Amino acid sequence: MISTNQFKNGNHIEVDGTVFKILEFQHVKPGKGGAFVRTRLRRAADGAVIDRTFRAGEKFRQVNTESRKMQFLYADGTDAHFMDSQSYDQLAIPEPAVAEPLRWLKPSDDVEVLFIDGSPNDVQLPSAVNLQVTETDPGLRGDTVSSGGTKPATVETGARVQVPLFVEVGQTIRVDTRTGEYVSRA
Length: 186
Fold this sequence. Notes:
Blueprint (H helix, E strand, L loop, with lengths): L1 E2 L8 E4 L2 E11 L7 E8 L5 E7 L3 E4 L2 E11 L3 E6 L5 E5 L4 H4 L7 E7 L2 E6 L3 E9 L13 E6 L4 E5 L7 E5 L5 E4 L1
């Protein structure tokens, strides 16, 4: 069991049968009444972020988490397949559960897979990835960094990204995996 005074950012707890990751917390001791803890939690099942307040000293079941380095093999329409880099064991995670990270993954990319209580739950990507542009409108003379416009582009994983006008098909770009925004040319 874990008490509210043992909270740390990144810990996983179980609240009412649901697993949450603690994003941030704040202990509050008002002048009148009992102390409490304000938290911002991310639901492990679907990534929804909620704000929740608990009484000070309230106890929760701490959830065992483990992160394993794995290699993304392929997605077949129903499952995403990964292979453990040490033991070569393969596992399948339902595609809807990891749909967002799959937008940025190419076959044979190395990722961290988060296991909660022994079962795979989430894929943790680096903050930015390099991807090749496979489709975009052609650049025109005068499209430079200073002109400031953007256009849609499709990258090799199939994801759509807004890129500056000077980016052309075949170039490799750096994309922020948290926001899906263009960062720079790679």
